[in-house]
């Protein structure tokens, strides 16, 4: 499925800065967004958003679905 390049992964690990959650490159800092991951993996991001309500993850409109089930 994926061509795993350990040398590239190790190079990225060496440049990761956990304090700022960014990669440090000679040209500047770089971060990875959820959109970047979705584009690389081909994941759809046009559906309902996942939000948190009282520490419980809820999908938009999920309260209506839950009410209709109960």
From TrEMBL:
InterPro entries: AminoTfrase-like_pln_mobile, MAIN-like. Residues 7-51 form the Aminotransferase-like plant mobile domain. PANTHER family: PROTEIN MAIN-LIKE 2, PROTEIN MAINTENANCE OF MERISTEMS-LIKE. This is Aminotransferase-like plant mobile domain-containing protein. It comes from Gossypium arboreum (Tree cotton).
């Amino acid at each position: 499925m994926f061509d795993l390049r350990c040398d590239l992964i190790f190079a990225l690990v060496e440049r990761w800065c956990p304090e700022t959650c960014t990669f440090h490159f000679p040209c500047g800092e770089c971060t990875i967004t959820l959109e970047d991951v979705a584009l690389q993996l081909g994941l759809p991001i046009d559906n309902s958003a996942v939000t948190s309500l009282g520490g419980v993850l809820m999908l938009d409109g999920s309260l209506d679905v839950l009410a209709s089930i109960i």
